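A favour, since you know our structure tokens better than I do. Just paste the record in under my message, thanks.
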Amino acid sequence: MLKHRRALQTLLVLFLLSGATSLVYETIWARQLHLVFGTSQLAISTLLAAFMAGLALGGLAAARWAGRVKSPLKAYAWLEAAIGAYALAFPWLLKLVTPLYLWLFSAVAPGPTLFAFLQFLLLGLLLLPPTLCMGATLPLAARFAATRPAEAGYQVGRLYGVNTLGAVLGAGLAGFVLLPGLGLMASNLAAAAVNGALALAAFLLAARSQPLPPASEATADSAESNTPGMAALLLVAGLAGFAALLCEVAWFRLLTLVLGGSVYAFPLMLLAFLLGIDLGGWAGGWAADRALAGGGRARVLTHLTCLQLGVAVLVWAAMFLYGQLLYAYVWLFTKVE
């Protein structure tokens, strides 16, 4: 039997690779959807909305039943296998839905609002199964990692940080290595093969790991989370995510003005966006535990308030630099040409 600490280290490696494959898929799907829906920000915003909706719904669903799963690593392995299998079928599914999309466009002649709704509906149906599975992986991994409530913030932050670091690597690998070098189909096959390997490794890890304590012991203090302020906190988290995705779409649009509809604009935006999330995830879990230990929930909420104000100020200040981006790009191009 592997000790829990060694098993957790192995899980972190698996979660790193899982995050990488997720962003490889997102970049590949963006290119595939461009071939159908065009390179407009409408297609990208719809893709991001559908992708994040699947992650959110999968995470919420898994959070409800993760504590009742006897072997979270086995459940995690099945999810990785399902993601890889669906990725292999996605190009075929996209071919099936394309005639429907074209027929709706010609029959309805939609305006911009209805057109966006049709895109979201079709993309949502296509992307919901794999993104639900992706979203469900974090609660299951956290169930295995955080055996004591006192370390929950640190362990979840570490898992989230590792997964996001993998996403950064995946976005860069897909945009600057796989797609230019291998093309869409070969890149998709490579990512699916990695998912299969992750599933096999997780099954082996589950077989060799020590059994977890009952969920009631690992989450003895979970009743504290059912506080009146939890609804307000969830609202804050939702609005923060809403603002973050608005920035993501706006920054992609900004990069397309410089880089055009090339393969590099989307992964470059993802690289910058996810790198910041990754560093914040690592630091945030550690800071949350220290704030909770030093001043309780009031100090945690104070830190959260300061962070949100800092984000608002920095996003507002960056707007004054947008007009200089093209000149900076030209200057950089002349230096490295």
Observations:
- Confidence is low (pLDDT under 50) at residues 216-225.
- The CA atoms of residues 113 and 119 lie 10 Å apart.
- The radius of gyration is 21 Å.
